[in-house]
Amino acid sequence: MTNIVKLSQWDALLVESLRKGHGWSDDEIIARVKAGADLPTDDSIFQFNYSDLAAFAEKEPETFESAVRNGYQIKYNTVRGLRSWIWVAFGDEPQLELEAGQEAVTAQLTPEQLERLRMALSFGWSIEPVEGAAGSYRIEPIQR
């Protein structure tokens, strides 16, 4: 089994935006980002700069390619970053709870999305089903 590579939350968002938002295949992401040419301009609220991802791919090509092809774990998630990752990766904006001591993200997830989230989520988070809401999960830090 291949060791899962770790990406920053920002690099993970960049990869997912190319995959979901631009519809690029894994091969296309790898080839175009490594070439550093013909990268899209992002006019979303995130204002993604794909040259950052190209710089990462140039510096750590094996890590980059493995992350795109085999998946990755995010090094460190924040509540807001997790909300953004779910939104970018799956196309649905989850609920964000920011009350002190109750910070969490609640999202509707398919079984496949839940598995991808489990793989990508950084250490220190729990995912629990929301009682009475099929397919809805609350994702929160284990320690606050």
TrEMBL record:
Q: Which domain of life is it from?
A: Bacteria
This chain belongs to the protein called Uncharacterized protein
Organism equals: Paenibacillus glycanilyticus
